[in-house]
Design a protein that fits this description.
Elements: E1 24-28, E2 31-39, E3 45-52, E4 56-58, E5 63-65, E6 71-75, H1 85-94, E7 99-103, H2 121-134, E8 140-145, H3 147-159, E9 168-172, H4 184-194, H5 196-205, H6 222-225, E10 234-239, H7 248-257, E11 261-266, H8 272-275, H9 278-291
Parallel strand pairs: 6-7, 6-8, 8-9, 9-10, 10-11
Antiparallel strand pairs: 1-2, 2-3, 3-7, 4-5
Length: about 290
Amino acid sequence: MSTRPAGHVARSTSRPYSETHSVSRDVTSGGTRLRTFLCTADGVEIDSVYESGSVVYDGDSGAARSVPEPVFVVAHGFTGEADRPHIRRVARVLARYGAVVTFSFRGHGASGGRSTVGDREVLDLAAAVAWARELGHERVVTVGFSMGGSVVLRHAAVGGGGEGGVDAVVSVSAPARWFYRGTAPMRRLHWLVTRPSGRLVGRYGLRTRIHHRQWDPVPLSPVEAVPRIAPIPLLIVHGDQDGYFPLDHPRMLAAAAGEHGELWVEEGMGHAENAAPDALLGRIGDWAVARAG
């Protein structure tokens, strides 16, 4: 669904937010809240929210000083967006462990562009990570769910741990391979993405604008990306009741990760953000704080 692979353009050094949009800044009892549109390396505007209780701004310049807490950059699943209740719940729990950036992938919610279902979305995540760094955070943890889980894996494989990279990666309910149709929900998703009538349902029923182009070339698969993430700490989380991707998917990812990855198989858990209980999100926060250095 793209004319070009995401590749290293995800590490663009251009300013991470568009100067045509103002930054909305609020100071609440929970800390500082910023909302803006970030501009990706390929020119798509991404609706993004930052929440923290620890950012310190220098005088009138508005420049942020480095803050000790990590920042969690949350990548939602397909048809999600930053304002959906389950994403806000994830953000609230992770805010106990650090600052949080949430955003809507291209084609979702108020963001521009059209969804490429995991291909160009690497650029959206790269813009969010760059913004977190610009706000003064030295430690960045990406947490992705379903489609977002595949995106955080590919982003870490491309960006590594250097400037613009991340310090830890958490992938929840992600596929290991593309074009999987082995479950009824995934067959419905393929209809939604590949058929004109499905894309209409996506646009008007699910608030998700889906690109009509097929992938060309096919992006690096999650299982191919995982070995390239080392030595960045990696956590793979999957429910044993996931209706989209059975357990061979996380096991393939864990096998590809080798010693640098951990696998948590959660008893009774279904798929992605909606199914992740607060207790699990808290354990993810603890893991990230311990591993991100």
